[in-house]
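User: Predict the structure for this protein chain, please.
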Amino acid sequence: MTREISRRRLLGTGTLVAAGAAAGTMVSGLAAPALAQSIYDSGVQYDPNAEQRRNASSFTAQDWRPHFETLAKGAILCDLTSRVVHFWSEDETVYRLFPSSIPASEDLTRLGRTEIIKRVEGPSWAPTPSMKKSNPEWPDFVAPGDPNNPMGTHSLWLSWQYYRIHGTHDTRKIGRKSSNGCIGLYNEHIKQLYDLAKVGTQVLLI
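Assistant: Here is the predicted structure, written as structure tokens:
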């Protein structure tokens, strides 16, 4: 049974308060302060002043059963409609959800089943061949910790080439269509998901 998670902003903190969560589950929704925007922006020509609808609707808790046969090694559901990432632990003691950014356009979007194949703390970033072709002036490599690194503080590699669930230093992207195909989270949220997920954790994008 789904439960509505109300979203209330607390003045001065930006905390998202979760209400009605089931006993024994944890619902995450801590917003981050705005930081510098990456000049490379994962290959998307993102204009923060453009009219883009941010997901301001209430988050809805979901049951894992309609989406996964088992919770072996845990499960991550990336819901592009609600722009929320759900995580269930293998033993069902942990359930969390996080607001996310999603791909900027339909042609950049990939849906279906994949899994975590690599976990990286302090990821570097390099443009894909198509990004480099479109933007030859971009560097071939951006080091971990660089404020212009669009990968944020942690990265979970998917089995699909070039696709990641990762953090972002540009908090304005969260809740928007603003990525080049990856799923972006606040840096403190990707850290939480990084600590929970493992190699082999199943992932579904819908």
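The longest strand covers residues 112-121.
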